[in-house]
Write a structure and sequence with these properties.
The complex is a heterodimer. Chain A is α/β, with parallel strands linked by helices. Chain A folds into two domains: about 220 residues, Rossmann fold (3-Layer(aba) Sandwich); about 60 residues, Alpha-Beta Plaits. In chain A, helix 4 packs antiparallel against helix 5. Chain B is of the alpha/beta class. In chain B, about 35% of the residues lie in helices and about 25% in strands. Chain B is globular and about 50 Å long. Chain B starts with a strand and ends with a helix. The chains are: A alpha/beta, B alpha/beta.
Protein backbone atom coordinates (compact mmCIF):
# COMPACT_ATOMS: atom_id res chain seq x y z
CA UNK A 1 0.00 0.00 0.00
CA UNK A 2 1.09 3.56 -0.66
CA UNK A 3 0.49 6.16 2.03
CA UNK A 4 1.06 9.81 1.27
CA UNK A 5 0.85 11.99 4.33
CA UNK A 6 0.65 15.80 3.94
CA UNK A 7 3.56 16.16 1.51
CA UNK A 8 4.57 19.56 0.12
CA UNK A 9 7.26 20.73 -2.25
CA UNK A 10 8.24 24.22 -3.39
CA UNK A 11 10.69 25.38 -6.08
CA UNK A 12 11.86 28.95 -5.54
CA UNK A 13 8.57 30.76 -5.08
CA UNK A 14 6.34 28.17 -6.69
CA UNK A 15 4.48 25.83 -4.38
CA UNK A 16 4.34 22.82 -6.72
CA UNK A 17 2.65 20.39 -4.32
CA UNK A 18 0.58 21.55 -1.32
CA UNK A 19 -0.13 19.20 1.58
CA UNK A 20 -1.28 16.22 -0.44
CA UNK A 21 -2.54 13.22 1.53
CA UNK A 22 -4.00 10.02 0.10
CA UNK A 23 -3.68 6.25 0.00
CA UNK A 24 -3.38 3.85 -2.89
CA UNK A 25 -4.28 0.22 -2.27
CA UNK A 26 -2.22 -2.74 -3.35
CA UNK A 27 -3.24 -3.95 -6.80
CA UNK A 28 -5.09 -0.73 -7.63
CA UNK A 29 -4.97 1.19 -10.92
CA UNK A 30 -4.86 4.75 -9.59
CA UNK A 31 -4.89 7.92 -11.69
CA UNK A 32 -3.76 11.47 -11.05
CA UNK A 33 -5.81 13.64 -13.40
CA UNK A 34 -4.83 17.26 -13.88
CA UNK A 35 -3.64 19.81 -16.43
CA UNK A 36 -0.03 20.77 -17.19
CA UNK A 37 1.47 22.48 -14.16
CA UNK A 38 -0.87 20.81 -11.64
CA UNK A 39 2.08 19.25 -9.77
CA UNK A 40 1.72 15.66 -11.01
CA UNK A 41 5.34 15.21 -12.05
CA UNK A 42 6.69 16.73 -8.81
CA UNK A 43 4.51 14.34 -6.83
CA UNK A 44 5.74 11.35 -8.88
CA UNK A 45 9.35 12.34 -8.35
CA UNK A 46 8.82 12.44 -4.60
CA UNK A 47 7.21 8.98 -4.73
CA UNK A 48 10.04 7.48 -6.74
CA UNK A 49 12.77 8.95 -4.47
CA UNK A 50 14.24 11.36 -7.04
CA UNK A 51 13.40 14.46 -4.98
CA UNK A 52 12.83 14.96 -1.25
CA UNK A 53 9.60 16.54 0.05
CA UNK A 54 9.87 19.80 2.06
CA UNK A 55 7.32 18.44 4.51
CA UNK A 56 5.24 15.32 5.07
CA UNK A 57 6.02 11.64 4.63
CA UNK A 58 5.54 8.79 2.16
CA UNK A 59 5.42 5.06 2.70
CA UNK A 60 5.66 2.67 -0.26
CA UNK A 61 4.88 -0.83 0.96
CA UNK A 62 6.43 0.17 4.29
CA UNK A 63 9.51 1.81 2.75
CA UNK A 64 10.42 5.48 3.09
CA UNK A 65 11.65 6.93 -0.24
CA UNK A 66 13.84 9.45 1.59
CA UNK A 67 15.71 7.10 3.92
CA UNK A 68 15.37 3.81 2.04
CA UNK A 69 15.68 5.07 -1.48
CA UNK A 70 17.86 2.18 -2.61
CA UNK A 71 15.25 -0.38 -1.61
CA UNK A 72 12.46 1.76 -3.07
CA UNK A 73 14.18 1.85 -6.43
CA UNK A 74 14.25 -1.97 -6.50
CA UNK A 75 10.48 -2.29 -6.12
CA UNK A 76 9.32 0.44 -8.49
CA UNK A 77 9.23 0.70 -12.25
CA UNK A 78 9.20 4.33 -13.40
CA UNK A 79 8.29 5.65 -16.81
CA UNK A 80 8.99 9.39 -17.01
CA UNK A 81 6.88 11.69 -19.16
CA UNK A 82 9.78 12.41 -21.45
CA UNK A 83 11.23 9.48 -23.44
CA UNK A 84 14.38 8.65 -21.49
CA UNK A 85 15.85 5.51 -23.03
CA UNK A 86 19.12 5.38 -24.96
CA UNK A 87 18.29 6.51 -28.48
CA UNK A 88 21.58 5.17 -29.85
CA UNK A 89 20.96 1.68 -28.52
CA UNK A 90 18.61 -0.81 -30.17
CA UNK A 91 15.34 -2.02 -28.66
CA UNK A 92 17.00 -5.23 -27.50
CA UNK A 93 20.07 -3.45 -26.09
CA UNK A 94 17.95 -1.02 -24.06
CA UNK A 95 15.93 -3.83 -22.55
CA UNK A 96 18.98 -5.93 -21.76
CA UNK A 97 20.69 -2.88 -20.21
CA UNK A 98 17.82 -2.28 -17.79
CA UNK A 99 17.61 -5.98 -16.92
CA UNK A 100 21.35 -6.04 -16.09
CA UNK A 101 21.22 -2.87 -13.98
CA UNK A 102 18.55 -4.50 -11.82
CA UNK A 103 20.48 -7.77 -11.60
CA UNK A 104 18.09 -9.84 -13.68
CA UNK A 105 17.79 -11.13 -17.25
CA UNK A 106 15.24 -10.68 -20.01
CA UNK A 107 14.49 -14.43 -19.90
CA UNK A 108 13.71 -14.45 -16.18
CA UNK A 109 10.83 -11.98 -16.38
CA UNK A 110 9.89 -12.40 -20.04
CA UNK A 111 6.40 -13.64 -19.07
CA UNK A 112 5.67 -10.22 -17.59
CA UNK A 113 6.51 -8.21 -20.68
CA UNK A 114 5.66 -10.81 -23.34
CA UNK A 115 2.31 -9.33 -24.46
CA UNK A 116 3.84 -5.89 -24.87
CA UNK A 117 7.33 -6.78 -26.06
CA UNK A 118 6.27 -9.23 -28.74
CA UNK A 119 4.64 -6.31 -30.60
CA UNK A 120 8.02 -4.61 -31.01
CA UNK A 121 10.25 -7.72 -31.00
CA UNK A 122 10.26 -8.04 -34.82
CA UNK A 123 12.14 -4.69 -34.84
CA UNK A 124 14.48 -5.46 -31.95
CA UNK A 125 17.61 -4.46 -33.89
CA UNK A 126 16.23 -1.00 -34.62
CA UNK A 127 17.66 1.98 -32.70
CA UNK A 128 15.30 3.36 -30.06
CA UNK A 129 15.72 6.86 -31.53
CA UNK A 130 14.12 5.71 -34.79
CA UNK A 131 10.89 4.33 -33.36
CA UNK A 132 7.39 5.79 -33.68
CA UNK A 133 5.67 7.26 -30.62
CA UNK A 134 3.60 4.15 -29.95
CA UNK A 135 6.62 1.83 -30.24
CA UNK A 136 8.75 4.01 -27.95
CA UNK A 137 6.00 3.85 -25.39
CA UNK A 138 5.88 0.04 -25.55
CA UNK A 139 9.65 -0.19 -25.18
CA UNK A 140 9.67 2.22 -22.23
CA UNK A 141 6.98 0.18 -20.52
CA UNK A 142 8.90 -3.06 -21.14
CA UNK A 143 12.06 -1.51 -19.63
CA UNK A 144 10.11 -0.27 -16.58
CA UNK A 145 8.74 -3.80 -16.03
CA UNK A 146 11.76 -5.99 -16.65
CA UNK A 147 12.80 -6.20 -12.96
CA UNK A 148 9.29 -7.27 -11.89
CA UNK A 149 8.37 -4.17 -9.86
CA UNK A 150 5.59 -4.20 -7.26
CA UNK A 151 4.63 -0.68 -8.26
CA UNK A 152 4.58 0.97 -11.67
CA UNK A 153 4.75 4.78 -11.78
CA UNK A 154 3.75 6.12 -15.19
CA UNK A 155 4.02 9.87 -15.67
CA UNK A 156 1.79 11.00 -18.56
CA UNK A 157 2.40 7.86 -20.64
CA UNK A 158 -0.21 8.80 -23.25
CA UNK A 159 0.71 12.43 -23.91
CA UNK A 160 1.42 12.94 -27.61
CA UNK A 161 0.16 9.48 -28.55
CA UNK A 162 -2.74 8.97 -30.96
CA UNK A 163 -6.14 7.60 -29.96
CA UNK A 164 -5.49 4.06 -31.17
CA UNK A 165 -2.19 3.71 -29.30
CA UNK A 166 -3.77 5.29 -26.23
CA UNK A 167 -6.51 2.68 -26.16
CA UNK A 168 -3.97 -0.13 -26.62
CA UNK A 169 -1.89 1.30 -23.79
CA UNK A 170 -4.79 1.28 -21.35
CA UNK A 171 -5.58 -2.31 -22.35
CA UNK A 172 -1.97 -3.21 -21.45
CA UNK A 173 -2.32 -1.53 -18.06
CA UNK A 174 -5.44 -3.55 -17.31
CA UNK A 175 -3.57 -6.74 -18.17
CA UNK A 176 -0.69 -5.76 -15.86
CA UNK A 177 -3.08 -4.95 -13.06
CA UNK A 178 -4.53 -8.46 -13.34
CA UNK A 179 -1.02 -9.77 -12.67
CA UNK A 180 -1.08 -8.02 -9.30
CA UNK A 181 1.05 -4.97 -10.08
CA UNK A 182 -0.03 -1.72 -8.42
CA UNK A 183 -0.16 1.04 -11.03
CA UNK A 184 -0.11 4.79 -10.46
CA UNK A 185 -0.56 6.81 -13.64
CA UNK A 186 -0.92 10.52 -14.38
CA UNK A 187 -2.67 12.13 -17.33
CA UNK A 188 -3.91 15.54 -18.45
CA UNK A 189 -6.76 13.85 -20.38
CA UNK A 190 -9.99 13.85 -18.45
CA UNK A 191 -11.48 11.08 -20.56
CA UNK A 192 -8.89 8.64 -19.23
CA UNK A 193 -10.22 9.06 -15.68
CA UNK A 194 -12.97 6.51 -16.26
CA UNK A 195 -10.34 3.85 -17.03
CA UNK A 196 -8.90 4.01 -13.49
CA UNK A 197 -10.19 2.28 -10.34
CA UNK A 198 -9.90 5.55 -8.44
CA UNK A 199 -8.67 9.00 -9.39
CA UNK A 200 -7.29 12.09 -7.68
CA UNK A 201 -8.27 15.35 -9.39
CA UNK A 202 -5.32 17.68 -9.14
CA UNK A 203 -4.79 21.37 -9.87
CA UNK A 204 -2.37 24.05 -8.62
CA UNK A 205 -0.56 21.53 -6.41
CA UNK A 206 -3.68 20.43 -4.58
CA UNK A 207 -5.80 17.31 -4.72
CA UNK A 208 -9.50 18.18 -4.94
CA UNK A 209 -11.06 14.75 -4.70
CA UNK A 210 -10.00 11.13 -4.41
CA UNK A 211 -12.77 8.81 -5.53
CA UNK A 212 -14.00 6.23 -7.99
CA UNK A 213 -14.66 8.14 -11.24
CA UNK A 214 -18.34 7.20 -11.15
CA UNK A 215 -18.70 8.53 -7.58
CA UNK A 216 -17.20 11.89 -8.59
CA UNK A 217 -19.76 12.16 -11.37
CA UNK A 218 -22.63 11.01 -9.09
CA UNK A 219 -21.74 13.57 -6.46
CA UNK A 220 -22.08 16.46 -8.89
CA UNK A 221 -24.48 19.04 -7.49
CA UNK A 222 -27.08 20.56 -9.77
CA UNK A 223 -28.35 19.98 -13.28
CA UNK A 224 -26.46 20.44 -16.49
CA UNK A 225 -28.24 21.29 -19.72
CA UNK A 226 -26.67 20.74 -23.11
CA UNK A 227 -27.74 23.62 -25.33
CA UNK A 228 -27.42 23.69 -29.12
CA UNK A 229 -28.58 26.25 -31.64
CA UNK A 230 -27.87 27.60 -35.10
CA UNK A 231 -25.16 29.78 -33.52
CA UNK A 232 -23.58 28.41 -30.35
CA UNK A 233 -21.31 31.40 -29.91
CA UNK A 234 -24.22 33.86 -29.87
CA UNK A 235 -26.16 31.56 -27.51
CA UNK A 236 -23.17 31.52 -25.18
CA UNK A 237 -22.96 35.32 -25.08
CA UNK A 238 -26.73 35.62 -24.54
CA UNK A 239 -26.95 32.99 -21.80
CA UNK A 240 -24.09 34.65 -19.95
CA UNK A 241 -26.13 37.87 -19.69
CA UNK A 242 -29.15 36.00 -18.24
CA UNK A 243 -29.80 36.73 -14.56
CA UNK A 244 -30.39 33.02 -13.80
CA UNK A 245 -27.14 31.85 -15.34
CA UNK A 246 -24.77 30.17 -12.89
CA UNK A 247 -22.28 29.04 -15.49
CA UNK A 248 -22.14 28.42 -19.21
CA UNK A 249 -19.25 27.13 -21.26
CA UNK A 250 -18.52 25.44 -24.60
CA UNK A 251 -18.65 21.65 -24.45
CA UNK A 252 -17.92 19.93 -27.74
CA UNK A 253 -20.73 20.52 -30.20
CA UNK A 254 -22.99 22.11 -27.59
CA UNK A 255 -22.82 24.42 -24.60
CA UNK A 256 -23.18 23.27 -21.02
CA UNK A 257 -25.49 25.51 -19.03
CA UNK A 258 -26.05 25.58 -15.24
CA UNK A 259 -28.90 27.55 -13.70
CA UNK A 260 -29.09 29.21 -10.26
CA UNK A 261 -32.66 28.05 -9.75
CA UNK A 262 -33.24 24.55 -8.41
CA UNK A 263 -36.11 23.98 -10.82
CA UNK A 264 -35.91 25.11 -14.39
CA UNK A 265 -37.33 23.43 -17.46
CA UNK A 266 -35.70 22.85 -20.82
CA UNK A 267 -38.55 24.88 -22.32
CA UNK A 268 -37.67 28.02 -20.30
CA UNK A 269 -34.10 27.94 -21.54
CA UNK A 270 -35.25 27.31 -25.08
CA UNK A 271 -37.73 30.20 -24.94
CA UNK A 272 -35.10 32.57 -23.61
CA UNK A 273 -32.87 31.84 -26.60
CA UNK A 274 -35.74 31.99 -29.10
CA UNK A 275 -36.59 35.45 -27.78
CA UNK A 276 -32.99 36.44 -28.46
CA UNK A 277 -33.55 35.49 -32.11
CA UNK A 278 -31.65 32.22 -32.08
CA UNK A 279 -33.07 29.30 -34.06
CA UNK A 280 -32.91 25.51 -34.11
CA UNK A 281 -32.58 25.57 -30.32
CA UNK A 282 -32.26 22.19 -28.61
CA UNK A 283 -32.00 21.87 -24.84
CA UNK A 284 -31.48 18.57 -23.04
CA UNK A 285 -30.65 17.53 -19.50
CA UNK A 286 -27.36 15.61 -19.53
CA UNK A 287 -25.26 13.59 -17.10
CA UNK A 288 -22.17 15.49 -16.04
CA UNK A 289 -18.84 14.45 -17.45
CA UNK A 290 -15.63 14.29 -15.43
CA UNK A 291 -14.63 17.61 -17.08
CA UNK A 292 -17.80 19.27 -15.70
CA UNK A 293 -16.83 17.98 -12.25
CA UNK A 294 -13.32 19.31 -12.66
CA UNK A 295 -14.64 22.73 -13.65
CA UNK A 296 -17.02 22.76 -10.68
CA UNK A 297 -14.24 21.77 -8.25
CA UNK A 298 -11.82 24.40 -9.48
CA UNK A 299 -14.44 27.15 -9.56
CA UNK A 300 -15.62 26.61 -5.98
CA UNK A 301 -11.95 26.85 -5.10
CA UNK A 302 -11.52 30.32 -6.60
CA UNK A 303 -14.90 31.63 -5.32
CA UNK B 1 -26.91 31.02 -50.91
CA UNK B 2 -23.69 29.22 -51.72
CA UNK B 3 -21.06 29.79 -49.04
CA UNK B 4 -17.69 31.13 -50.02
CA UNK B 5 -15.08 28.37 -50.08
CA UNK B 6 -11.67 29.31 -48.69
CA UNK B 7 -10.02 25.94 -49.13
CA UNK B 8 -10.64 23.76 -52.17
CA UNK B 9 -8.87 20.41 -52.50
CA UNK B 10 -9.51 18.29 -55.60
CA UNK B 11 -7.84 14.93 -56.17
CA UNK B 12 -4.78 15.86 -54.16
CA UNK B 13 -2.02 13.27 -54.43
CA UNK B 14 1.37 13.54 -52.76
CA UNK B 15 4.01 10.89 -53.35
CA UNK B 16 7.44 10.47 -51.82
CA UNK B 17 9.10 8.01 -54.19
CA UNK B 18 6.74 5.03 -54.23
CA UNK B 19 5.08 5.98 -50.97
CA UNK B 20 1.67 7.63 -51.33
CA UNK B 21 1.27 10.00 -48.38
CA UNK B 22 -1.94 11.62 -49.66
CA UNK B 23 -4.16 9.46 -51.83
CA UNK B 24 -6.72 11.47 -53.85
CA UNK B 25 -8.00 13.81 -51.16
CA UNK B 26 -11.18 15.78 -51.89
CA UNK B 27 -12.71 18.34 -49.57
CA UNK B 28 -13.50 22.02 -49.17
CA UNK B 29 -13.74 24.37 -46.20
CA UNK B 30 -16.24 27.24 -45.99
CA UNK B 31 -15.45 30.77 -44.85
CA UNK B 32 -15.84 31.11 -41.09
CA UNK B 33 -15.98 27.36 -40.55
CA UNK B 34 -14.14 25.51 -37.76
CA UNK B 35 -12.79 22.51 -39.57
CA UNK B 36 -11.17 19.54 -37.80
CA UNK B 37 -8.49 17.54 -39.55
CA UNK B 38 -7.93 14.27 -37.71
CA UNK B 39 -5.83 11.19 -38.13
CA UNK B 40 -3.46 8.85 -36.34
CA UNK B 41 0.30 9.43 -36.32
CA UNK B 42 1.53 8.77 -39.85
CA UNK B 43 -1.89 9.03 -41.52
CA UNK B 44 -0.72 11.87 -43.78
CA UNK B 45 -2.09 14.87 -41.88
CA UNK B 46 1.17 16.79 -41.66
CA UNK B 47 1.90 16.21 -45.34
CA UNK B 48 -1.50 17.59 -46.35
CA UNK B 49 -1.20 20.52 -43.97
CA UNK B 50 2.23 21.48 -45.33
CA UNK B 51 0.70 21.57 -48.79
CA UNK B 52 -2.20 23.75 -47.63
CA UNK B 53 0.27 26.19 -46.06
CA UNK B 54 2.28 26.45 -49.30
CA UNK B 55 5.34 24.71 -47.82
CA UNK B 56 5.21 21.68 -50.09
CA UNK B 57 3.84 21.12 -53.59
CA UNK B 58 1.25 18.49 -54.52
CA UNK B 59 2.36 15.71 -56.91
CA UNK B 60 -0.98 16.13 -58.70
CA UNK B 61 -4.41 17.60 -58.13
CA UNK B 62 -5.69 21.09 -57.42
CA UNK B 63 -5.33 22.91 -54.11
CA UNK B 64 -6.63 26.45 -53.66
CA UNK B 65 -6.22 28.31 -50.38
CA UNK B 66 -7.65 31.81 -49.85
CA UNK B 67 -8.24 32.04 -53.61
CA UNK B 68 -4.70 31.13 -54.67
CA UNK B 69 -3.26 27.98 -56.17
CA UNK B 70 -0.65 26.60 -53.76
CA UNK B 71 1.45 25.25 -56.62
CA UNK B 72 1.83 28.51 -58.52
CA UNK B 73 1.17 31.17 -55.87
CA UNK B 74 2.61 29.75 -52.65
CA UNK B 75 3.81 33.16 -51.44
CA UNK B 76 0.34 34.69 -51.77
CA UNK B 77 -1.05 31.78 -49.76
CA UNK B 78 1.52 32.24 -46.97
CA UNK B 79 0.60 35.92 -46.56
CA UNK B 80 -3.04 35.05 -45.98
CA UNK B 81 -2.69 32.36 -43.36
CA UNK B 82 -1.79 32.26 -39.67
CA UNK B 83 -0.27 29.29 -37.85
CA UNK B 84 -0.12 28.22 -34.25
CA UNK B 85 1.61 25.09 -33.06
CA UNK B 86 1.37 23.59 -29.61
CA UNK B 87 5.13 23.37 -29.30
CA UNK B 88 6.70 26.51 -30.75
CA UNK B 89 4.67 29.47 -29.81
CA UNK B 90 6.49 32.63 -28.81
CA UNK B 91 9.90 34.01 -27.86
CA UNK B 92 10.22 33.57 -24.10
CA UNK B 93 12.86 36.28 -23.68
CA UNK B 94 10.85 38.97 -25.45
CA UNK B 95 7.91 40.87 -23.95
CA UNK B 96 4.33 40.37 -25.05
CA UNK B 97 4.43 43.53 -27.17
CA UNK B 98 7.85 42.73 -28.68
CA UNK B 99 6.61 39.30 -29.72
CA UNK B 100 3.59 40.84 -31.41
CA UNK B 101 5.68 43.51 -33.14
CA UNK B 102 8.09 40.86 -34.40
CA UNK B 103 5.31 38.80 -35.98
CA UNK B 104 3.61 41.89 -37.41
CA UNK B 105 6.86 42.67 -39.24
CA UNK B 106 7.15 39.11 -40.53
CA UNK B 107 3.66 39.44 -42.00
CA UNK B 108 4.47 42.88 -43.43
CA UNK B 109 1.93 44.86 -41.41
CA UNK B 110 2.33 48.63 -41.35
CA UNK B 111 3.35 50.24 -38.04
CA UNK B 112 0.09 52.10 -37.56
CA UNK B 113 -2.01 49.10 -38.50
CA UNK B 114 -0.08 46.94 -36.03
CA UNK B 115 -0.47 49.48 -33.18
CA UNK B 116 -4.23 49.70 -33.58
CA UNK B 117 -4.85 46.00 -34.12
CA UNK B 118 -2.35 44.92 -31.43
CA UNK B 119 -3.91 47.20 -28.84
CA UNK B 120 -7.44 46.03 -29.69
CA UNK B 121 -6.55 42.34 -29.41
CA UNK B 122 -4.61 42.75 -26.16
CA UNK B 123 -7.40 44.78 -24.59
CA UNK B 124 -9.82 41.97 -25.39
CA UNK B 125 -7.48 39.58 -23.57
CA UNK B 126 -7.10 42.05 -20.66
CA UNK B 127 -3.36 41.93 -21.30
CA UNK B 128 -2.77 45.43 -22.64
CA UNK B 129 -1.53 46.81 -19.31
CA UNK B 130 0.76 43.80 -19.04
CA UNK B 131 2.26 44.24 -22.50
CA UNK B 132 5.80 44.88 -21.22
CA UNK B 133 5.97 41.61 -19.31
CA UNK B 134 8.31 38.90 -20.54
CA UNK B 135 6.48 36.00 -22.12
CA UNK B 136 8.48 33.61 -19.91
CA UNK B 137 6.60 34.93 -16.86
CA UNK B 138 3.17 33.98 -18.25
CA UNK B 139 1.34 30.76 -17.37
CA UNK B 140 0.86 28.10 -20.03
CA UNK B 141 -2.80 29.05 -20.48
CA UNK B 142 -1.96 32.71 -21.08
CA UNK B 143 0.86 31.80 -23.46
CA UNK B 144 -1.56 29.77 -25.53
CA UNK B 145 -4.15 32.53 -25.66
CA UNK B 146 -1.44 34.99 -26.64
CA UNK B 147 -0.08 32.63 -29.30
CA UNK B 148 -3.53 32.45 -30.85
CA UNK B 149 -3.81 36.24 -30.79
CA UNK B 150 -0.45 36.50 -32.56
CA UNK B 151 -1.61 33.98 -35.19
CA UNK B 152 -4.63 36.16 -36.10
CA UNK B 153 -2.83 39.51 -35.70
CA UNK B 154 -2.54 40.12 -39.46
CA UNK B 155 -6.20 39.22 -40.02
CA UNK B 156 -5.52 36.07 -42.03
CA UNK B 157 -8.26 34.38 -44.06
CA UNK B 158 -7.40 31.07 -42.42
CA UNK B 159 -5.67 30.18 -39.19
CA UNK B 160 -4.11 26.72 -38.80
CA UNK B 161 -4.02 25.34 -35.26
CA UNK B 162 -1.97 22.26 -34.43
CA UNK B 163 -3.29 20.48 -31.31
CA UNK B 164 -4.16 23.82 -29.75
CA UNK B 165 -5.52 22.71 -26.37
CA UNK B 166 -3.60 19.53 -25.55
CA UNK B 167 -2.79 19.34 -21.83
CA UNK B 168 -4.43 22.58 -20.64
CA UNK B 169 -6.94 22.71 -17.82
CA UNK B 170 -10.65 22.48 -18.68
CA UNK B 171 -11.40 26.12 -17.87
CA UNK B 172 -8.55 27.59 -19.93
CA UNK B 173 -9.47 25.19 -22.71
CA UNK B 174 -12.97 26.65 -22.81
CA UNK B 175 -11.69 30.23 -22.80
CA UNK B 176 -9.54 29.21 -25.74
CA UNK B 177 -12.47 27.74 -27.66
CA UNK B 178 -14.42 30.93 -27.04
CA UNK B 179 -11.60 32.86 -28.72
CA UNK B 180 -11.78 30.45 -31.65
CA UNK B 181 -15.58 30.89 -31.89
CA UNK B 182 -15.15 34.65 -31.86
CA UNK B 183 -12.54 34.55 -34.62
CA UNK B 184 -14.81 32.30 -36.71
CA UNK B 185 -17.69 34.67 -36.07
CA UNK B 186 -15.48 37.49 -37.45
CA UNK B 187 -15.06 35.44 -40.64
CA UNK B 188 -11.67 33.85 -40.00
CA UNK B 189 -11.67 30.21 -41.05
CA UNK B 190 -10.18 27.90 -38.44
CA UNK B 191 -8.41 24.71 -39.48
CA UNK B 192 -7.60 22.44 -36.50
CA UNK B 193 -5.36 19.39 -36.74
CA UNK B 194 -5.29 17.12 -33.76
CA UNK B 195 -5.21 13.53 -32.70
CA UNK B 196 -7.17 14.25 -29.56
CA UNK B 197 -10.72 13.29 -30.34
CA UNK B 198 -12.25 15.41 -27.59
CA UNK B 199 -10.93 18.49 -29.42
CA UNK B 200 -12.70 17.25 -32.53
CA UNK B 201 -16.07 17.53 -30.80
CA UNK B 202 -15.74 21.34 -30.91
CA UNK B 203 -15.41 21.56 -34.70
CA UNK B 204 -18.25 22.27 -37.15
CA UNK B 205 -17.10 19.50 -39.47
CA UNK B 206 -14.29 16.97 -39.25
CA UNK B 207 -12.36 14.75 -41.62
CA UNK B 208 -10.66 11.59 -40.47
CA UNK B 209 -7.60 10.45 -42.39
CA UNK B 210 -6.48 6.84 -42.40
CA UNK B 211 -3.49 5.59 -44.43
CA UNK B 212 -3.35 8.67 -46.66
CA UNK B 213 -7.08 8.67 -47.49
CA UNK B 214 -10.02 10.59 -46.08
CA UNK B 215 -12.28 7.92 -44.63
CA UNK B 216 -14.94 10.14 -43.11
CA UNK B 217 -16.09 13.75 -43.47
CA UNK B 218 -19.11 15.21 -41.67
CA UNK B 219 -20.28 17.03 -38.55
CA UNK B 220 -19.32 15.29 -35.29
CA UNK B 221 -22.95 14.47 -34.50
CA UNK B 222 -23.56 12.93 -37.96
CA UNK B 223 -20.39 10.87 -37.67
CA UNK B 224 -21.45 9.62 -34.25
CA UNK B 225 -24.83 8.62 -35.70
CA UNK B 226 -23.26 6.98 -38.72
CA UNK B 227 -20.87 4.89 -36.61
CA UNK B 228 -23.39 4.37 -33.78
CA UNK B 229 -20.82 5.82 -31.38
CA UNK B 230 -21.09 7.83 -28.17
CA UNK B 231 -18.01 9.94 -28.81
CA UNK B 232 -15.61 10.95 -31.58
CA UNK B 233 -13.06 8.72 -29.90
CA UNK B 234 -15.20 5.68 -30.67
CA UNK B 235 -15.73 6.86 -34.26
CA UNK B 236 -12.01 7.18 -34.67
CA UNK B 237 -11.24 3.80 -33.14
CA UNK B 238 -13.70 2.01 -35.39
CA UNK B 239 -12.08 3.61 -38.45
CA UNK B 240 -8.42 3.41 -37.53
CA UNK B 241 -8.18 0.16 -35.65
Amino acid sequence: MIEINAISKAFDNVQAVKEVSLQVDEGELFGFIGPDGAGKTTLFRMLNSLIVPDAGSISLFGLDPVKQYKKVRQIIGYMPGKFSLYTDLSIEENLSFFATVFGTTIEENYHLIEDIYKQIEPFKKRLAGQLSGGMKQKLALSCALIHKPKLLLLDEPTTGVDAVSRREFWDMLKALKSKGITIVVSTPYMDEASLCDRVALMQNGKVHAVEKPQVIVDQFMGNIFAVKSNNNYKSLLQLRTWEHCKNVYPFGESLHYLDHRSKVSEKEIENFLLEKELAEVEVALVTPDIEDCFIAFTQTETD
Amino acid sequence: MEKEKVIIVKDLVKKFGNFIANDHLNFHVDKGEIFGFLGANGAGKTTAMRILCGLSKPSSGLVEVAGFNVKTNAEDVKKRIGYMSQKFSLFEDLTIWENMRFFSTVYGMSRSNFKARGQLLLQKLNLFDERNRLVSTLSLGWKQKLAFTVAILHEPSIVFLDEPTGGVDPITRRQFWEMIYEAADDGITVFVTTHYMDEAEYCNRVTIMVDGRIDALDTPSELKKQFKAESMNEVFLSLAR
